[in-house]
Amino acid sequence: MKFQRLLQSNDSHPTTTMELSAAAAKRQYYKEWYEKNKAKRQEYNLKNRVHVREWHLKHRDRVLEHKKKYREKNRQKEMARHKKYFEANRERILDRARMYREKAKLDKQASSSVESQGAVREPPLSSVRMRLTFILN
Question: Domain of life of the organism in this record (predicted)?
Answer without folding.
Answer: Eukaryota
